[in-house]
Design brief:
It is a single chain. The protein is α+β, with helices and mostly antiparallel strands. About 65% of the residues lie in helices and about 10% in strands.
């Protein structure tokens, strides 16, 4: 009887399915509704670890290269001397010579560029634009007034400029310019005359005396200008943001500074520090180039040889800076070729 009543009620009205109950996860209910922990991103962690290891290896290789050039310049065996130098010394050498100055310079330049961008935003404010327009209008009015009422010097210059021989010389120069521009050789000559940097570079390399350090600095400045031009072009086309522009400029200058310092360290290595050692029971002082201080003893370079002085034989050790190296002699390219 109840079944027939239910069937009769379903025929008279719409049948409504009961809403299924949502079964909660046992783990979620046990955690008081807290979501399950996310999986650990191991690929990102391994990528970061690989990047850190690669950067550390790069710093170590740069420090080893700088120290190897210095040892070779001192006339010591590089293969044996590099093996006894602690890795911490090579890391510190590369960091002090390249990375710390580059990072500080890049960060300072990033802050400077960011400040300039904020100052530019202030200049683009409507009130600032109106003030500049008003100042420009006042300057134009003063210029027009000076033209209408010229001074004694202006009148004298106009008379000299309109004098017969001067006017004829101006006409000849304009005709020569037009004739030179009409020919290919004349265009090349005018292009060179309008590019003073090309003329200065040619004279600087071939005729004027120069040093390797100045040449490295000039190349670094040229690379920085080229890179900054490209960055500005991308920013003008709205391909990068202002923060990215500041970061790229700071990174570019930091890399250029590191490259210049590394090139100067390789082309003109600094001399090694001097070590003065007093042995136990011997009043005689032993002097040589300081190489490394290890638990085995003190490694010193003397007479183009690597000496190991055991720790038990050392009474006193004094390490001092090396003698200042002589400044590089400026020579022309012709003298270097000869």
């Amino acid at each position: 009887m109840p079944i027939l009543a239910i069937l009769r009620r379903g025929s008279d009205s719409c049948w409504i399915h009961p809403r299924p109950t949502r079964i909660r996860d046992f783990r979620v209910s046990m955690a008081d509704g807290a979501p399950t922990p996310k999986p650990i991103p191991w690929p990102a962690i391994w990528s970061a670890a690989g990047g850190i290891a690669g950067a550390a290896g790069l710093v170590y290789l740069i420090g080893a290269a700088i120290e190897a050039v210095r040892l070779n310049h001192a006339g010591l065996p590089v293969d044996h001397a590099i093996g006894v130098i602690p890795r911490s010394t090579l890391f510190a050498l590369a960091a002090n010579a390249l990375f710390i100055p580059a990072i500080v310079t890049g960060a300072a330049l990033f802050l400077f560029v960011t400040g300039l961008q904020r100052a530019g935003d202030k200049l683009l404010h409507p009130e600032a634009v109106e003030k500049r327009a008003a100042a420009r209008t006042r300057r134009t009015e003063r210029r027009v007034e000076r033209r209408q009422n010229p001074s004694l010097v202006s009148r004298a210059m106009r008379r000299i400029w309109s004098f017969g021989p001067v006017a004829a010389t101006r006409l000849r120069l304009s005709r020569a310019w037009s004739w030179a521009w009409a020919t290919r050789a004349g265009r090349v000559l005018i292009w060179l005359l309008l590019r003073p940097l090309v003329i200065l570079a040619i004279l600087y390399v071939f005729v004027l005396p120069w040093t390797v350090g100045a040449l490295i600095v000039s190349a670094g400045v040229f690379i920085q200008l080229s890179g900054q031009t490209r960055i500005t072009h991308k920013r003008t086309n709205l391909e990068i943001t202002r923060r990215t522009e500041a970061l790229l400029i700071g990174g570019l200058v930091a890399l250029a500074l590191s490259g210049e310092t590394l090139a100067q360290q390789i082309t003109r290595p600094e001399p090694l520090a001097l070590a003065s050692v007093t042995l136990v029971g011997h009043p005689r002082l032993l002097t040589g180039e300081f190489v490394a201080n290890t638990p085995e003893g003190l490694y010193v370079g003397a007479h183009h040889s690597l000496l190991l002085i055991p720790e038990r034989l050392i009474d006193q050790v004094a390490i001092s800076n090396a003698r200042p190296r002589k400044p590089e002699t400026a020579r022309t390219l012709l003298d270097r070729i000869q």
